Structures are given as C-alpha cells and as structure tokens.
Amino acid sequence: MPASHLPDQDEIFRDICVVVLPLVLFVFISVTATQRLEHGRISSSYQTRLDQVQKRLHHQEDLLQLIMNCHPESVMIFDLQNRYWFVNQYAATAMGAEMKDIIGKMPTRVIGADTARRLEARLNEVRKTGQSIKAMEQSTDSSGLPRFVQVHYEAIKPSSDFPGGVMVREEDLTNLIVERERRETMLRQVIGTLVAVVDRRDPYAAGHSARVGQLARAIAEEMVLDEKMIETAEIAGSLMNFGKVLVPREILTKTTPLSPEELQRVRDSILTSADILSIIDFTGPVVATLRQVMERVDGTGAPQGLKGDEISITARIVSAANTYVALVSPRAHRPSLELKEALKQMMRDAGKAYDERVLAALTSYLENRPAKLDWLTQTKHG
C-alpha cells in the first residue's frame, strides 16, 4: 500500500472506538442490569422472608392473646417505665377499659392513684431484687361487696429488646374465701352445739371443753405453730370430751372417787370422741389428734403406746391442756388446785406423761402473759 494511503494513529483510534466502545458499553449495561436483577431478586426474597416472619409473629401474638383471654384471671405485663405493655381481656374488663386504650399508658392514667403507687412500688421491688412477690389485696367491688385478690409479681428474663419487664397475675379468691369463711362459721356453730351438749350431761364440768380448747390454742401460739395446727389444737381440745355423751350420767355426777372401771370408761369416751367426729371434714388433723390424746411421751399410754415425737404435737398440747384445766377446776369428788400447784404437779411427769416443750410453753404463757384467759385470772393463785 502506498505510504500516502496508510491510516494515521487518529484514524486507528477512531476505528477502535467505533468497534470497542459499543462492546464495553454493552458489557457495562449487561452487568448493571444483571446486578439490578439480582438485587431485585434478593430484595424480593428478603421481603418475602420478612413478611413471613412478621406474619408468624402476628400469628403467635394473636395466639398468645387468645390463650390469655381464655385465662380466668387478669394478666398484665409492664415495661421498664412501668407502662402497660400487654393486658388480656380479663384484666381490661376488670379495669373497665378497652385493651387498646390501656397499652402504653402509665397505671396512674388507668387505675386509682393509691393503687397505682402500690403497684409501681412492687414492680420496682421485683426488678431490684429479682424475686417474685405474692400479696393478698382486699377491696370492694362496684356493689360494695368485699373482693379478695392474690397478686403475683414475676420478673421477666431481661433481653435487649425488652429489659426490665414484669408480669403481674391477679387471682380472684373472693368466692373461695367467702365460702371458706362460711364453712368455718358453720363449723364453729357445730362445735359450740356439741360442747353445749357435753356441758348439759356433766354440769360439774361445765365449760371444761371450751377452756381446754382455749388453753390448747394459747400453748400452740406460744410454741409458734402455724395457724392450721393452732386451730387443730383448739378444736380438738374443745371436742375431746364429746364422747362423754355416751357415759352414764350417774358416773359423770358422782361425788365420790370413781372406781377403776368407771375411770376407764371415762377415758375410753375420749377415744370414742374421735370415732363419732370422724364423719366431720375438719381442715386440720383433728380426728388424728383425738386418737392420740391418751398417749404418753414415755410410750406407756393408749391405745397404741406411741412415744415422743411419734405422738402429734397437737395431741401432746391437748393432753397437757386437758390435765391442767382439770386440776385447776373443782370436781364433784375433789376441790381445785391453785395454778402454781397444778403446774408443779404436772412437772413431776415431764418427759413421762407430758412433753417437756409443751410444759415449758404452758409455763411461759402463765408467767409472761399479763392478759391471760378470763377463767385463769379468776382462779386463785398460789
């Protein structure tokens, strides 16, 4: 080719640009389009997964709400600022508001100021100590009737999404407590009637059963027993002589010392009391106590020869109370003993007939209680 017709560098560059640039531009557009398609596909997949997670969470939330709404007690959850984070329908109804109108609000805007302050104080205490709280609260309903609610405060395990949460459950025990009080009132009336029957049968021992019950309760309280055992000692003491209704009246009113056979018949009547009263559904082990009041701590008693701690503490208490009341009370065949002399006489049988701890509690009560039982303060002291 002649030199005059050879392409210069500018022509070569232009030719290259004409051929190469479209290819580069095509590749760039293709890559960009591919990236956008891939990004769109990933975004679409991510959005789909996000929608599925949100749908699952909403489903679980609806399921939790359904379960909590069927729960027969108020359930509430509070956040770190003591705002309502969750309430079930039962709680909302009790507060007289819609659930949506409660969530996110402070207690002072939903319930009374005093109740709200007490609630927030306990929420803060649970967060501070990490310990659950159980409290019984009494109030009145819209009709003025008493309402008893047991409230449980429980800390929720903290997380980054929900720190300091506390769940509160309110269990309405009104019906249970009212029914229990009604039952206890009826039981007291039955016990009073049974004791009156015994008093009419044995006029010389009038008031003895009630006094044994009172003193048994005093001893049990001195020993710091729980309320159930204190009530058991009192009821068993009041009823231990009920079996006397089957003892002939001439034995009960006899003015001379009882014969061994007559004395055994009176003692057997105490065990008969347990058999007769076994049909009553006492809250505590009253009948079991009555079956053991004739036992002695040294094992020489009746009917099983139990010894020491094999004998229930309530039976040991009632046994000592019964003897003490009998000693300081006059009978048809003997006068009464003075209080100190009666205690001194029982001390001779400490560890034999009577539990030493029970006698110590009896002594402590007699010496340290300024306001003793009326019938004791009216008895002549030695």
Shape: elongated
Name the beta content range: 5-15%
Separation, N- and C-terminal Cα atoms: 155 Å
Tally of alpha and pi helices: 13
Structural features, described:
It is a single chain. The chain has 382 residues and is an alpha+beta fold. Helices cover 55% and strands 9% of the residues. It contains 13 helices and five strands. The chain has a five-stranded antiparallel β-sheet. Strand 1 and strand 2 (84-87) form a beta hairpin. Helix 5 (208-222) packs across helix 12. The longest helix has 62 residues, at 9-70. It is elongated.
Features:
about 375 residues; alpha+beta; five-stranded antiparallel sheet; 5 strands; about 55% helix
How do you describe this structure in short?
The protein is of the alpha+beta class and 382 residues long. The chain contains 13 helices and five strands.
List the helices and strands and how they pair.
Elements: H1 9-70, E1 74-78, E2 84-87, H2 89-95, H3 113-129, E3 133-140, E4 146-155, E5 166-172, H4 174-201, H5 208-222, H6 227-239, H7 249-252, H8 260-277, H9 286-290, H10 313-327, H11 339-347, H12 356-368, H13 374-377
Antiparallel strand pairs: 1-2, 1-5, 3-4, 4-5
Helix pairs in contact: 5-6, 5-10, 5-12, 6-10, 10-11
